[in-house]
Input
Amino acid sequence: MGALHIVVCIKQVPDSAQIRVHPIYNTIMRQGVPTIINPYDLFALEAALQLRDQFGGAVTVLTMGPPMAEESLRKALAFGADRAVLLTDRAFAGSDTLATTFALASAVSKIGETWGTPDIVFCGKQTIDGDTAQVGPGIASRLELNQLTYVAKISKLDLEAGAIEVERRAEGGTQLLSTKLPALVTMLEGSNEMRRGSLACALAAAQAEITVWNAAAAGIEDLLNCGLKGSPTIVKKVFAPGAHTVRAQQIELQDRNADDIARDLLDQIFIRQPQVEADLMRMASGQ
Amino acid sequence: MASAQQPNDKFDVIVIGAGPSGNAAAYVLARGGLRVLQLERGEYPGSKNVQGAILYANALEQIIPDFRDDAPLERHVIEQRIWMLDDKSYVGMNYRSEDFNEERPNRYTIIRAPFDKWFSRKVRDAGATIVCETTVTELIRTEAGRVIGVRTDRDGAVVLADMVIMAEGVNGLVGQRSGLRPELKPDSVALAVKEMHFLPRETIDARFNLKGAEGVVIEAMGTVTDGMVGTAFLYTNQESISVGIGCLVSDFKTGTAAPYELLHRFKTHPAIAPLLEGAEVKEYAAHLIPEGGYNSIPQLYGDGWLIVGDAGQFVNAVHREGSNMAMTSGRLAAELVIKLHRMREPFSSENLAEYHTMLKNSFVMKDLKKYKGIPGFLHSSSKHVFGTYPRLLSQAAQTWFRVDGADKREKERQIVSMMRKDRSFSGLISDAFKLVRAWR
Ligand SMILES: Cc1cc2nc3c(=O)[nH]c(=O)nc-3n(C[C@H](O)[C@H](O)[C@H](O)COP(=O)(O)OP(=O)(O)OC[C@H]3O[C@@H](n4cnc5c(N)ncnc54)[C@H](O)[C@@H]3O)c2cc1C
Output
């Protein structure tokens, strides 16, 4: 197979540490708030750069966002990425995760046509402004890539065999997973430390031509899948939840029949939500 | 691919720093067709700068005539208040004029981070290469001492250029380390602390009696600094108020109060507190201001190098003008470099000496020279200027305005005797004399 090609999806987000809340209207004041690369994406970028340094090839960074997202791409280039693509179009405004993955997946395909099919697509675990963790898996399923989420470490990459092996953090332990390339990997925080880019990279980044694609250039014909039109999610209300933590409880599954497990589960729910039990009882008794 | 690229590019000019002076220089140079590299240690231009400030339109107009079209300006200043504070009162002079509501206003309040970012975009659009998050650690010089490039903190990598302009601000270490600038003296540099108080626009308009984009500036001195040499200020932005106070570093060393205590004192002064009430406070920042004036200006040029802006101590502390001097010195330096470049003349010390002449013919040196005695005067008379006099003035005003059965001649007598008691007549005369001499 040819040289390794990695695509890293990044997002420019407001620096949450510096967000202000309007003292009167309680709305978020975005004006003047500096933007950063979504911190989780930096772990993905560094993982990609390490693989490129080891195996050769190229790292392409991709972002969807307003024209000013170019800043984030230049930062990524200064860290050492080889090329950058900005996907920007008014048609993308208001995208939820479904529409976002549609646009990004289209752009990844276009990148593949232009510079060679990527072996790995990297994403951060999630963004700090959306927190859904759906975009990576969404791209994977649209492009039919094998997906490895919450990855703490790339333990092996075998280009000859077209295989990748990773450590995935899961509840209660670490899983060792391997799959075939091409694959999509979402990286966990703390999995590596972003390098200080060289002066050569910083200079190249400052002078680089950034590839800018609108929807048409990214090969998107059907705008109904984009932006608000392509976004079934409706945010009805944003509110601050009251302080509230409850320890998660696990129900034993091993060697038990489904009825017992279900009863256990209901018991646990009813202990916490007596009203639910009362309502169900009422419904059951046909009132 | 790009990762294997070497920094073999050589530039005509390297500018160290992306504050007002560095941006002015880099912009003019790039527009003049030179290959410019600007290095800034901050995450982005403006990230290292203390926020709220007054922008003097004239200096910027000479660089970007139509800056008003898209620069992030907060309000134009239509009213200036100069206040002498004692603990409970102020005696002040306010000047407000409809004339300041002109088509091309003369002064604006700005917030430095977005403003510097805007300026930097202009620099980039003009064709300069800007690299942030990169600190220059030293100058590269030939054996004969000519500056030919800089070393950076990115793995110690070096970039070469025919000429280096130091726009590194008041505490820039490059010039100091290279022995081109003396170290800062505590009595010629002030430490200023500043906060942003966020309030809805309408509240600010109502409190300061403003409409549209009108703004107010308050500058105050007096007992808040407790005999230390310093001033406090308050600027109205669109949806925030910048409040700050600064004193000489040498005074902080010996004085009784820390900077934030002074700021607290100023904010809770009965004349200031109601203006800030209910605001959400964000951003606490401290920064140095060179206040040594004319007498502390270092050597400004040499073989292959020039100094512009705060690094050259170009601040008029009395009028709180710094950014305009920074931009003007940056522009003049760039104009000279372009001229020499076009004439294919070397950037030698002899040729660059003209920079000094250009500065002398501009308001920069003229004003600094005019006020050269002020720092010394304030220093030697600080106890009175920042303590006794404001108190006396307030007492005198109160005696004069309070109607209490005493006749007016009696009141005059009381005021004069008050003055004599707190500060001997000869002391008063001597201070007045010294001040007039320093001013002229
Ligand atoms: C609280 C306060 C209020 C002020 N208010 C006003 C006002 O209202 N009006 C006014 O005109 N002036 C005001 N001033 C003064 C004004 O801010 C300065 O005069 C002006 O910023 C000077 O510009 P400069 O470009 O020379 O330096 P700076 O603005 O200090 O910029 C220097 C830049 O160089 C960078 N740098 C330094 N060393 C290196 C290095 N080794 N490598 C790379 N980069 C480096 C720094 O990060 C910085 O960005 C105020 C100052 C303070 C502190």
Notes: The CA atoms of residues 228 and 251 of chain B lie 6 Å apart. The longest helix of chain B spans residues 323-342. The two ends of chain B are 63 Å apart (CA to CA). Residues B 16-22, 39-42, 48-50, 53-54, 135-136, 167-169, 172-174, 192, 194, 244, 287, 289, 309-311, 315, 320-324, 326 surround flavin-adenine dinucleotide (CB under 6 Å).
